[in-house]
Amino acid sequence: MASAATFSAGAAAPLVLTLLAPTSWLIPTVSLGSLVFLALLGIMGARAGGAAIVRPTTRVVFWGALAMTITAGIGALVAILGLQRDH
Known about the structure:
Layout: H1 2-20, H2 26-49, H3 54-81
């Protein structure tokens, strides 16, 4: 239950940013905000587990940033190759 709750909270936070950010700032706002939220969740997880804060938080932010970069890269590649369908 705790994992599901934190996952939902972590997913909801960037969604709120999409409602608040101006369209021209949407990608940078959501990207940076997601990294900040990941850092906060990393800190909370480290504290809950009794671990030092820096290494777990750095690990969470690093892998989150890498996942976002790979996802954006795949999206850009799909757009370049024209594999998106316009409806």
